[in-house]
Amino acid sequence: MDTSAVVPGRQVPDQLGPRRLPVVHVPYGRLAEEKGETAVTDYIFVNATDPDFGIELGPTLLYVHDPAKCEGQTCCIHHPSDHHMVTWPQNWRADREMMERICPEHGVGHPDPDDLNTETTHSCCGCCKPPMEGGS
Q1: Model confidence at 4, in pLDDT bands (50, 70, 90)?
Q2: Whole-model pTM?
Q3: Which of 1, 31, 106, 110 has the fewest Cβ atoms nearer than 10 Å?
């Protein structure tokens, strides 16, 4: 796949090798369409699920919105806030149109606090709750 034709100056990382990556086109999903924002000018590599059945696809080329669209505001892709899960791996749930953070201890997906989707129902190991200040 020649990604330089899609986004000038951007290359597929060498560590992914010659394997074909699944490609998911998600500017912001249905939330963007409701606002009339569908321009895609950037992409990221992130674990993702199948949009129909939620089956894990693994590393996926995810087309996303232009970074200028979210400049000056919190964005789970370009400008994450300083929440306690910010270093956890991300997973795009194409079946639910939401970004998750995967708990490194339990492997459970939690809604990314910076995602536009306000759906928060998820399996939970309890690690998505911020640690108490000054507590253990």
Answers
A1: very low
A2: 0.68
A3: 1
